[in-house]
Structures
1.
Amino acid sequence: MTINWKNNFKEGKELVLATSSRSGNPNANVVISLGFFHDKLLIADCQMVTAIKNLKENPRICVIGGYFRIKGHVEIFSSGKYFEMCVQKNKEYKVRNAVVIEVKEVFDLNKVKIVN
């Protein structure tokens, strides 16, 4: 039985989001997934000050969900459809930005291999 890796990143799942500044200073946050839209993972920035600073300098990101690691590129939106989706899905905290992740690589940490 093959597990769909996206199940580990579906809406409501806790994820570990890792960023790095341009100079290589790392940072990690625990975030809540808002799910996939147009094959891009959506995260609401409510308290990610250092992560957003890093992503503006270096848009590459690594996210862990369950035993899967994804790597990709980020776009940050402070308005528009992705931002409005974050606001609608997150009533508990004030949304500052929508973080949209285009997945470039999926790695199965359990099997130690890249997933196609």
Note: Strands lie at 14-20, 26-37, 40-45, 60-65, 68-77, 97-108, 113-115.
2.
Amino acid sequence: MRISGVTIAEEKRVDIALSYLYGVGRKNVTDILKKAEVDASKRVKSLSEDEQKRIQKILEGYKIEGDLRVEVNDNIKRLKEMGAYRGVRHSKNLPARGQRTKSNARTKRGKRVTIGAIKKEVAAKMGIGAPEKGKETK
């Protein structure tokens, strides 16, 4: 069974398999299956053609997969262009919903980068650091 270009797993239960679609969660699945009058405990492979068509007909009323992804990206782009706080956070790749970043947010900020002291020998080779005592610079 294919819906919106996504192949749905044949061995899964219908209620689980439909939630694999982007934009269809567990709550939406129960509503869809009630409207389509399909038993949630059935396997996808055991659905009749008529039941599949009813599910697809109901899913046409929902914004899923590509259309939803485009809408979400447009919303983020609009926030960035406006200069809104959330847009700025999106452009800086930081959490946009008020989470703390001092100790957490590793998934958004990436791997830790240690910035700290450099050994004197390395600093001398790089030509940085404070001048040695007794020598004056002009």
Note: Residues 68-129 form a domain with the 30s ribosomal protein s13; domain 2 fold (CATH 4.10.910.10).
